[in-house]
Structures are given as C-alpha cells and as structure tokens.
Write a structure and sequence with these properties.
Elements lengths: L1 H44 L5 H7 L10 E5 L4 E6 L2 E8 L3 E4 L28 H15 L8 E8 L2 E7 L9 E2 L4 H14 L24 H5 L16 H8 L3 H6 L15 H12 L5 H16 L5 E2 L13 E3 L1 H12 L3 E2 L2 E2 L5 H6 L14 E2 L13 E5 L3 E6 L4 E7 L6 H15 L1
Antiparallel strand pairs: 1-2, 2-3, 3-4, 5-6, 5-15, 7-9, 8-9, 10-11, 12-13, 13-14, 14-15
Helix pairs in contact: 1-6, 3-12, 4-8
C-alpha cells in the first residue's frame, strides 16, 4: 500500500511537471513561430533573399530552427509552424511585413503614392589611394578572414564620399537589410523633425491618458529617448521577456509597453528598453490622421532629402511603424543617414534636423555612465577603446552598426548576422584597422 501511495505521488509530480512544461512551451509558441514567420517573410519579400539561405544563416538557432516554414508567393505570406502552433506574416508593397497576430484574413493592400518616385542619388567616390588601403579590410570582413562575424554588407564614407564597399555573395548595394535597433536612431530623427515643426516638446510630460493617475504622468519624451523612463521592462532576447512578447505577440506594441508599471522615478535610472521607443513612435503616429500620412511625412522630410528611395519601415497591426526594430534600407542608405548626423543634421548645406538636435542626441543620459544619449549609443565609456571618444552609433541586434566619428569625418556601416557576444570586441578591431588605414 505504501509503495502504491509513493508511486502515486511520483506520478502526480511528473504529471504536474509535464503539464507545467507544456504550458510554458505553449506560451513560447508566439515567439518561436512569430520570429520565424516575420523575419523570413521580410528577408524573402523585402530583401529578395532565398528561403533556404535565410533558414541556414539567420534562422538556424535555438527552437527557431525547428519551424516548418511555408512561403506563399501568390499571397506574399509566410506561415511558420512549430509543434501545435503557427504564425503568419504578410508582405504589402511599401509597408513591408506585418505579423498577423490573431487576425482572420489578410490585410488590404493599400497604396503609398511616394514609393519609387525619387530619382537615384549616387554617392560620390572618395580618395582612390584611401580606397586601395581599405580594400583588404573590406574583403576580409565579408569573407570571415579577419573578424568574428558574418557581415552581409560593409560601407565606409570619408568626408561624405564612398571609399569602401563590399558585400557577401548573394547581397548587393540594392539589397535592403534589417536595422534591428538601429531603427531607434531613425525614431530620434522623426522626433527631431516634429520638434522642429513645433509639434512636440521633448521636455514636457507625455499626454498619455493611462499615465495621468500615477507617477508615470511625469515621464517626458526625453526620459523615453534616453532610456530613463522608469517603466518596468525586460530586454532579454533569450527568454519569454517583455521585448519578445511585444514583438511577436502584441498587435499594438506601444500600448503594451506604456501599460507597464513604474519601477523607478522617471529620469533617474538607465536601462535599455525597446518598449520605450515604441511608446515614442506610437505617440508620433497619433499626430497624424493615418499610417499613410505618417509614412508620407517621414518620406518627404527625412528619406527624400537624403536620397533614400525605398525605405521600408514596417508596422504592427495597429498601423504604427515598429520604431524599435523593423526598418529596411540598403547599406548605402544607412550610410547616408549616418552622414546626416555627422553633418549636424544638414544635407547638401540644407538643414534637415533642428539646430542643436544632434548635440542633444549625443548628450549622455544622466545615469548611463556616458554610454547612451537619446536613441544613440556613445563611446564616452570606452566601449571601443581604439576609437575616438566622440564616436557615436546606431546599434542593432546581432551586430548591426552605423559608426559615426566626427573627428575623423567617418561613417562606417556593418550589416549582417553576427550574434556573437564579443562582436563589440570584433568591431573595435575593425575600427582600429580602418583608422590605421586613414
């Protein structure tokens, strides 16, 4: 009788553990299937890449590699299945890819009148002797012969001119590639434009209804841009974290992030939060009558002056561009953006961003120990010890970078898939080699 009772307890414990594990695994399904569907759809339909290549390079990790992915070229969708769950993502011209979380049926196509209306704007060629010195560095980078990563594209501008460019096989100067969190710096530019138009005050408390009855009512745009909002947040990409739930489960990402409780007094505690950027982008989107009107504003005021013809800023299901993560541009176009900030917000002598905006963007957040400004990373803490202290950068997940070095009149762009924990060390070596060639 005692043995039967013990066996019963053991079986009950095992059943409970299996049930708990199954429920936890089920809660991960939107992340596992959503990540594969969204990123594969964007790679195929925005970047023009081959499904097998993306699965082998970008999606071959953790549970993600076990998805069964179906690309539907007629409807321009990708459906990813893992065990008993699936997710579907849809591509639309001009809008890019949207994860169809909980939606029945496809999104309507819509139309963006500004797509492909700009003439090509070439980058002028720089000093040929410098280009020759940089060529071995560029070649080694994309062939994995010197640096520990897998870059797909590499561009250097010196004094506003193209001095180095290289691409891994299968990629070219026309390939649009994912920004990941470099998109945050483009959100910075959108805030700057609207601030210059007198439609925003970065120092004023946000007028968000959900915040008006508690301490969150004191949060400003500046607090959010400097990652010092005080809102609770978990940015761990390797778990069922806030950032993963936001990107792969939520239909309105900014709403999810702004619903978080206050954990610290606003403006006093620095910690990285993609949710903060999506709160900001949601606020910006609310100043316009429609998604199309907002995207048109970004095109007319930011992308067109830079000569960027086919920017793809993907939205969530609420119609808000995902300012934290989902922008697709060519490597040259990312370089053009870096040059805008190198030139203090001006293009061809014409001011685009308000006077003083770039300096504001580079001002360290009070609790960041010199690491972070306003949606830009800084080098005042010596992250890159072999690069000048005035370096500032757009930094994205898996090693996406736009390095801007005013003292050297230099912009360096690296794009690809480099999920190594030491990629900061590798990029420091790269910068050291580039600066040595100068």
């Amino acid at each position: 009788m005692k043995n039967k009772k013990t066996l019963g307890i053991v079986l009950a414990v095992l059943l409970t553990a299996l049930l708990g594990g199954g429920l936890y695994l089920d809660s991960l399904m939107p992340i596992i299937t959503g990540y594969a569907a969204k990123n594969l759809a964007s790679a195929v339909f925005v970047s023009g890449r081959d499904q097998a290549d993306v699965e082998a390079k970008d999606l071959h990790f953790s549970f993600i590699k076990f998805n069964r992915n179906k690309v539907d070229y007629e409807n321009r969708t990708v459906t990813s299945r893992f065990l008993w769950r699936k997710s579907t993502a849809q591509y639309r011209d001009g809008y890019g890819v949207t994860l169809l979380r909980g939606r029945k049926g496809l999104l309507p196509e819509g139309s963006l009148s500004f797509v492909d209306t700009l003439p090509a704007k070439p980058l002028p060629a720089g000093d040929s002797a410098l280009s020759a010195r940089l060529a071995p560095i560029a070649g080694a980078l994309v062939r994995d012969q010197a640096y520990n990563g897998t870059p797909y594209a590499f561009v250097i501008l010196h004094q506003g001119k193209l001095v180095a460019e290289s691409y891994r096989q299968g990629f070219s100067r026309d390939t649009r590639l994912l920004s990941w969190s470099m998109a945050k710096s483009f959100t910075n530019a959108a805030v700057g434009l609207l601030s210059g138009d007198g439609r925003l005050d970065v120092h004023a408390p946000m007028d968000i209804p959900q915040w008006q009855k508690d301490g969150r009512k004191g949060i400003t745009l500046k607090d959010l841009m400097q990652m010092q909002s005080g809102l609770s947040w978990n940015e761990d990409y390797g778990s069922r974290s806030d950032v993963n739930l936001m990107l792969h489960r939520e239909t309105d990402m900014g709403l999810y992030a702004l619903s978080k409780p206050l954990e610290y007094e606003p403006g006093t505690h620095w910690y990285y939060s993609s949710g903060s950027t999506n709160i900001v982008m949601r606020h910006l989107r609310g100043l316009f009558d429609s998604e199309e009107a907002f995207l048109g504003y970004l095109h007319d005021r930011l992308f067109a002056p830079l000569g960027i013809r086919d920017a793809c800023f993907e939205s969530d299901l609420s119609g808000t561009p995902v300012g934290s993560s989902y922008l697709y541009l060519t490597a040259r176009d990312y370089a053009r953006f870096g040059q805008l900030y190198l030139d203090d917000g001006c293009v061809d002598g014409k001011r685009i961003l308000p006077e003083g905006w770039v300096d504001y963007s580079k001002t360290p957040a009070s609790d960041s120990q010199g690491r972070y400004g306003a949606f830009f990373w800084l080098n005042r803490d010596g992250d890159y010890p072999d690069a000048p202290e005035d370096l500032f950068e757009c930094r994205g997940h898996d090693g996406q970078e736009i390095f801007i070095i005013p003292s050297k009149e230099l912009v360096v762009v690296v794009l690809g898939y480099s999920p190594k924990p030491d990629h900061v060390i590798e990029w420091n070596r790269l910068l050291k080699d580039i600066l040595g060639a100068l």
